Structures are given as structure tokens and as C-alpha cells.
Amino acid sequence: MNSAHILVVDDNPTNLKLVSDVLEFDGYQILKAIDAETAQEIIEANPPDLILMDIALPGMDGLTLTRLLKANEKTRHIIIVALTAFAMKGDDAKASEAGCDGYITKPIDTRKLAGQVAEFLGPNRSPSAERPK
């Protein structure tokens, strides 16, 4: 199966594992990073189709990395979805201004996450669209 590659960037090991496990179960190919610097190395070596980007990362934060990726000709096409527990009024606007293509709040709803990711990727990119009926 040729499913979408998703990079999950989160410094919390529990969140990283949960999001990764849920999406792997639905057939996505998952890459993982615990900080922005590791994410940059992964993106350079194997650009994903979509990044689930935690906003509050140690060192460089997720919005700063998003701005860098969206300013780079080689990576600006990657879909970046902010994944954050900071669901304060205006945070979605900050994520959008930084270049995020969408916003998902934590704690994630494990029943909805794969569908939310599929919506960002479009109808022809979700693993369920590639499975024989």
C-alpha cells in the first residue's frame, strides 16, 4: 500500500506514541521527531506529505519551524497541521499566520484523528481510499 507519509513532531513521548499508533493503525506511514531540529533532519532526508506539529517544543518552537518550512521552496508544499494543547482564543490565528494549514487541539480524539488527517490530505491520499472495497 502506498499511503501518505506523516511526520509527527511532539516532545511528549506519550502524545507522540498515541498519535503515531492511531495513524499507523489506519495505514499511514509515520515518521517521528521529539524536537524541531530532529524534524528538520527527517524532512531533509525524507520529506513527508503532512506534518502534525506540536507548537510548544523545546528549543525552536513549532511555529518557528513552520515559518522556516513555508519560506523554503523545497518544503513549502508540505501540509502542516498545528497539534497543540494551547487552545487559547487566537491560537488558531497564530498558527495560520505562521503558515499552518490547519489546527487540531490536544487531547486528540482518537476516533476522529485519522479522518481529520485524511481531510487535510484530500480524498485520494487517505489509506482507506487505497484499500480494496
TrEMBL record:
Keywords: Phosphoprotein, Two-component regulatory system. InterPro entries: CheY-like_superfamily (IPR011006), Sig_transdc_resp-reg_receiver (IPR001789). The keyword Phosphoprotein applies. The modification 4-aspartylphosphate is found at residue 54. Coiled coil: none annotated. GO terms for biological process: phosphorelay signal transduction system. SMART domains: REC. SUPFAM superfamilies: CheY-like. CDD domains: REC_DivK-like. Residues 5-121 form the Response regulatory domain. This is Response regulator receiver protein. It comes from Chthoniobacter flavus Ellin428.
